[in-house]
Write a sequence for this structure.
């Protein structure tokens, strides 16, 4: 085959095949995922609002962030609730949209009707209320969107024939890829809109700044509108599809079988609600009690609860599928639990490499945009290769992409800049590293989500998504703990000066950063490869 034909085949598999697999039924859950990404619109304005208008300490805000994370602990029982009330799950999207809309509207009124709001209760109390309402709405909508992403993939073609297994597998992978694509597209839209709306704000007076902040909150009211529109669109699609089937001569029962879940009834399992309650109770007890080793206790307790619920899940699967799911979950858990360098690397980039806020923002935007491109480019690979193959590939790529950071610490930019007339400097290397590395982290979850969409029992799809998401998200907590421990051994400090006297209270010390980066790279590559080797040589081997 000629190079031109190879390029044409690759473009067809990456771009045109995505268009062939796209279905209008994919759009409703994608709208909800996009709204979730777009919800970050108020993050920057909220930070400045606290800084300029509220007297809240950093410790208080850190505690507030802890409470805001608690609604996500409820995703497990919410997922099961979605399965139980499958036909009425759209009502939960309206409920979540109500919470999000109320959160945004409170802040809009605080900025535009300050006197009236302050007469009801303190502005700080309004802010806390708004801050806690938003994640409550988002987690409700996320649980429903996961279920809708399964429902969006058709089981039968236009003639009523069952879609072949390989085609269904590809469509599920496409749906989950597009779900992550929509989520990150929301963050890209936020970045671009913030750049536009904050343009020239440093020259504005206080009143004009307040008006700008209020305008951003007003735009943020589009967030619940987008997610609700997704539900309305799904209802319209179902009505039209049902009418078409009835026109072809099918009975009501036959039409329902073709596009509704054939076994709608889900028997409530109290363990999922008990587990969710236990999760919240443990977090509240340890969080309020300021217990020593609180993070470790919450992690261990949460892991025990999630493993108990996973045991409930796999019991309904055939033995071979149960073992494959456990093996897949273990591999992805280890992949996501590997440590990171921590904030010391960012401090080094700011203090030594002189990366400023604008350049770091550019790196963030590049990451989001290229993650979208990476998902599209690697989608055919995820659709046709086993999950462990993808994990090994991402592991090796991640290790390779850690090398530029190590090189920057040891001064490779001085050599490359001298050889290229200053073109390949530290910023060039950082952009190149970001451009290549950005797709890796987000891609890791897609194959497992697609596996659940294909293989989980149809009456427990949302429950499977919620529990497995909780398990793999615990891997991120493990990664944070692992990172903390390494940073306690290899202590990195940045220079801190007294704001009054200007005296240096903590000197900068990046001596151990090089060793830390090398060790983190070795663990990032070694641990997943060991996990894959052990799993693939055991009864948990996953062929899918």
């Amino acid at each position: 085959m000629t190079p031109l034909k190879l390029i044409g085949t690759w473009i067809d598999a990456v771009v045109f095949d995505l268009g062939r697999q796209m279905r209008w039924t994919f759009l409703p859950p994608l709208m909800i995922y996009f709204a979730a990404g777009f919800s970050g619109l108020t993050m920057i304005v909220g930070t400045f609002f606290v800084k300029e208008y509220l007297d809240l300490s950093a410790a208080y805000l850190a505690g507030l962030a802890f409470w805001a994370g608690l609604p996500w602990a409820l995703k497990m029982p919410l997922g099961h609730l979605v399965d139980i009330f499958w036909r009425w799950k759209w009502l939960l999207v309206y409920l979540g949209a109500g919470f999000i809309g109320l959160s945004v509207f409170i802040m809009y009124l605080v900025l535009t009707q300050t006197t009236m709001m302050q007469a009801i209760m303190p502005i700080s109390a309004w802010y806390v209320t708004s801050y806690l309402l938003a994640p409550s709405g988002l987690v409700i909508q996320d649980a429903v969107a996961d279920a809708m992403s399964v429902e969006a993939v058709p089981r039968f073609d236009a003639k009523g024939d069952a879609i072949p297994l390989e085609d269904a597998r590809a469509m599920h992978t496409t749906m989950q890829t597009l779900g992550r694509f929509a989520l990150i597209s929301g963050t890209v839209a936020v970045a671009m809109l913030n750049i536009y709306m904050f343009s020239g704000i440093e020259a504005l007076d206080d009143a004009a700044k307040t008006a700008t902040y209020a305008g951003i909150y007003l735009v943020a009211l589009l967030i619940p509108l987008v997610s609700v529109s997704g539900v309305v669109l799904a209802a319209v699609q179902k009505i039209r599809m049902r009418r078409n089937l009835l026109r072809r001569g099918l009975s009501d029962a036959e039409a329902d079988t073709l596009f509704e879940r054939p076994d709608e009834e889900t028997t409530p399992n109290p363990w999922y609600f008990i587990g969710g309650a236990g999760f919240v109770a443990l977090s509240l007890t340890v969080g309020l009690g300021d217990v020593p080793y609180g993070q470790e206790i919450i992690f261990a307790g949460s892991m025990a609860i999630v493993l108990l619920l996973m045991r409930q899940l796999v019991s309904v699967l055939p033995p071979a599928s149960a073992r494959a799911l456990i093996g897949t979950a273990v591999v992805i858990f280890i992949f996501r639990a590997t440590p990171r360098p921590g904030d010391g690397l960012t401090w080094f980039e700011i203090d030594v490499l002189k990366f400023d806020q604008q350049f770091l923002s550019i790196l963030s935007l590049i990451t989001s945009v290229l993650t979208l491109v990476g998902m599209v480019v690697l989608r055919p690979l995820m659709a046709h290769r086993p999950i462990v193959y993808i994990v090994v590939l991402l592991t090796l790529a991640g290790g390779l992409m850690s090398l530029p950071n190590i090189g920057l610490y040891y001064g490779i930019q001085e050599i490359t800049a001298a050889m290229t007339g200053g073109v390949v400097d530290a910023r060039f290397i950082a952009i190149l590293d970001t451009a290549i590395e950005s797709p890796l982290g987000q891609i890791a979850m897609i194959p497992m989500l697609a596996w659940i969409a294909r293989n989980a029992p149809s009456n427990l799809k949302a429950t499977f998504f919620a529990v497995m998401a909780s398990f793999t998200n615990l891997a991120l907590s493990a990664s944070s703990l692992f990172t903390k421990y390494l940073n306690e051994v290899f202590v990195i400090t940045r220079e801190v000066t007294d704001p009054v006297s200007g005296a240096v209270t903590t000197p900068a010390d990046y001596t151990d950063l090089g060793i830390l980066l090398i060790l983190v790279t070795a663990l990032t590559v070694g641990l997943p490869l060991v996990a894959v080797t052990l799993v693939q040589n055991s009864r948990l081997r996953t062929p899918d």
In short: Residues 83 and 460 are 6 Å apart (CA to CA). The first helix runs from residue 3 to 21. The chain has 23 helices and two strands. The longest strand covers residues 504-506.
